[in-house]
Amino acid sequence: MKKKILSFASILILCACNNSSKDSVEKADSTNQAIQDSAINNNKSVVEEAGSSFLVRVADAGMVEKKLISFAMGKAVYQPVKDFAAMLNKDQASLDNQVKTLANQKKIVLPQSISEAKQKEIDMLEKSQGKELDKTFINMMISKHQNSIVMFEKALQEVVNYDIKTFAEKTLPILKSHLEMAKSLQKKYQ
């Protein structure tokens, strides 16, 4: 037991020392890699890198979407855009809960804040006003959902862990539906 505690403590110290200049996603990836290495060294089962990396990326994307959606719900001009944002908000909350539950079950560390690159997207939307904000939000949702679909399809090919793969499988149709809704709004308001 003492050996396990010392092993885990050394992982946390190593991660803390190596993460001083990294953003939240890099820190989560680094910590997960250290946990995987430690588990392998101690002959324990662990989620493969593709699975942990996938959940880290989904969590990061979710934090960004939550901010974008919240901003659009309060500032969008067109009611259908606000309604779309409200629907996304509900679905995103459910997705976030699923990701957190999976991460807890699989002992995967998730990012605690939005990555630096993704913060720029939020800043861009926050600078928009009026009808331009609606257009920017819709275009962002199209782009984000296209990227998410690619990420989830890739996960279906690469992730080995059954629970994470099942999560990706069940979520993919929802993402595709959101994309079609966003494209429909784009046609209406562009």
Describe the fold and architecture.
There is one protein chain. With about 190 residues, the chain is mostly helical. It has helices at about 1-20, 25-40, 50-75, 80-105, 115-125, 130-160, 160-190. Helix 2 runs antiparallel to helix 3, helix 3 (about 50-75) runs parallel beside helix 5 (about 115-125) and helix 6 runs antiparallel to helix 7.
Largest sheet: none
Order of helices and strands: HHHHHHH
Q: State the secondary-structure class.
A: mainly alpha
Helix content: over 70%
The general outline is globular
Q: Provide the β-strand percentage band.
A: under 5%
Q: Any idea what the radius of gyration is?
A: 19 Å
Count every helix, treating DSSP H or I runs of 4 or more residues as helices. Answer: 7
Low-confidence parts lasting 5 or more residues at pLDDT below 50?
A: 1-21, 39-44
